[in-house]
Sequence to fold (347 residues):
Amino acid sequence: MYGKRMKKYIFSALLAVVTLTACDKVSPAGILIANTDVDDRIKMSRDYYRIHEGDLFLFKQAPDGEYTFLVGADSHLTTDPGRMQEMLQIGIDDDDLFYAHLGDIADTKAEYYIVLDNVILEAKEKYGKKHFKPVTYMDDYDTPHTIYMDTVSQKLYEVKDIPLPFHPVVGNHDITNNGWALWTNMFHSSFYMGYVYVENDGFDYFDRLIFLDSASGTLGEAQIDEIESHFFEADFPYMDKIKIRHTFVFGHTNIFRPSASEFASTFTREETYYLLDKFDHWNTSIVFSGHVHDWDERKVGDITYLTLDTMCEKNRPEPGDYLVRVHVKRDGSLSWERVHMNYSPRH
Fold:
């Protein structure tokens, strides 16, 4: 019925020995232990990154020097794709430069990842129709097929290969019951980076994007080694003439607890201090996290910390402000707003 993609996810499920079944509500606590720990994931991700750097290294150019991006968290997708469809549709309709997801994207079951794959494929086609030129050709059996041309780069894409600017990080529920096999089959690397290029008054600027793996509630030794080897400070030609204007950090595990009754961060005190110091060193403007299924905003020094509420239909069945949109102006000023989601499984 599902063809090759069904076989692909069944194979991933067999590798993962997935046994998780959906519950009525999803707890943010989850299980912070899996058969692959953070060091395993970082090493596998780094190997993939070295081979496919062109696919994972995000380089985006801001049209007219201004851009927006959209952020969501903790969708815990099962059989109802409504909220995930809505998030991607909002991003496409409003021309956000990219859409980031803060982890716990789907429960770890092969059939749920097939649903997720279909949602992303549908969004890729919508994105292609809006931004690329459709080209129709006839195959050897006189059957028409449509591919999409990027008129700037002249690249041709089948629907499955359209570069939808959707960039997730891994969450603790994504790795439970060996879910890493399912997650990495679709998204490949659990930590990566990118830049948004902005030209303003004859000067070149970069806004840096950092995606961390905090799914196990710790950075782990391998990821700290990569950070200390300046993985997130990659050199560009003439880097000394280019200014890093903003840094945006995306991760799953929260740094601060929204209230005394909520889950505290699982980072050790030393690791929390290490992260706070790195955020400052990277000239970070906003740190995004999820995990606790509750909203929190606070400012420490010059850095804003936003913890997003869950967009999961089971936990939040009513419409609400579950997304965040950041506006970055040509002059470097920025603002953010919460974005309303209308979908409800009850309506």
Summary: Residues 6-34 have pLDDT under 50 and may be disordered. The longest strand covers residues 192-200. The first helix runs from residue 4 to 16. The two ends are 30 Å apart (CA to CA).
